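User: Can you predict the 3D structure of Putative regulator of cell autolysis? Sequence below.
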Amino acid sequence: MTRKSLKTYISISFFSGLFFFIFFSSEKSLNSFLISLSIATMYTFLMAVPNGLLNNYLNHRFSWVNQTKRRTIVGVIATIVLNVFLTYLCNGINFVLIQKVTTWDIFFSDKYNYANWFMINFALMISAFLHAKSFMEELKKVTRKEVVEQKIIAKSANAQFESLKNQLDPHFLFNSLNVLSALIDENQDQAQKFTLSMSKIYRYVLDQKDKELVSVEDELEFAKTYAELLKTRFEDSVEFQFNVPKEDYQLKVVPLSLQLLLENCIKHNFATSSKPLVMKIYTENGFLCIENNLQTRELPKDRDGIGLSNIVQRYSLLTKENVFIEKSDDYFKVKIPMLTEQQKINTMNIVNPSNESLAYEKAARRVKELKGFYGNLISYCIVIPFLVIINLMTSPKELWFYWPMLGWGIGLVAHGMNVFAIGKNWEERKIKEFMEKDQYKS
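Assistant: Sure. Here are the predicted structure tokens for Putative regulator of cell autolysis:
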């Protein structure tokens, strides 16, 4: 028991004892007040401590968030059993041992059924309040944790994606300068032509490197220009074959992917006039394929670049579609997925911080619904006992508190069903069902 809980129990005991002393005690004396305070303290500690221990055990055993139904069912059964036992124990101690107004035989007869029934309902209402408070605290904790985790994931993914894109700029420049350096020694006219073409290509690199996706058409045009540069360098030692239908031009790929893959082919294979390196670019079942005949040459490990791994990592951050690599004795092929406009919108959400806001708003709406229900439940637990007390004090022979208890109780059950059973989950399922039907029809 924590110090805060102890202070709470003492406060409840004092004010409960004072309440019963003022409104139910016929003798207004210090002795009578101490008796009322003792009885209230006994009820508070014998009822609250076991319920608190039960609540803590159930919270440890069953998660409110991940095992809501099981936690609710077990909690209801255990709370009813425990409070029935504690009510009879406390009432027995009060009436038989403290006030000595009856015996144990009479206490368990029909005469005290109403008193026991009233205390059981009162205890269950207080227990419901405690369980609702426990649920809200855990839900708030989990919601805050999930929001923080989503922020971390989004920021991490965004930072990782930016890091990968920033690798392209110096990587392309470094390799292009290597080619230019070789050309200067071999053919200065070609070197000058290469420099002019490289400036045009580098402008494309600067324009596209900050984009997540570009059209296949733009990427092909850039790849053809880059292929011309490679032809300038290697002449008839390399050959390029482009065979991409125009209907695929508006699909999306990650920028500079073709340039990196063509560069990868040159780096890992030797090319001569007698054995030219043939690179084919074509589409196949929604994938853009880059295939080359295999003429492998050994490379130092420190020359392993970022080309293929960069593309794989960028796609993994943007979509669930995979990059496929095929290798045989004769050829090496990389297949990169071509994404539709709709897939582009969906993939942007992975690294777009606005998705984090949408998730937060959805979680906030759900928390608001739950707070509304538990606010309703807590109000019920406070107001109904108060009405019962007023009814018993003013007209004990005419019991009218049943009607607000029943009416409000039915409304509370309906509210709970809307929140937990047939509320938003049912709406979301139906919305998804109708959207799928409309999409199928279209």
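Confidence is low (pLDDT under 50) at residues 345-356. The longest strand covers residues 277-284.
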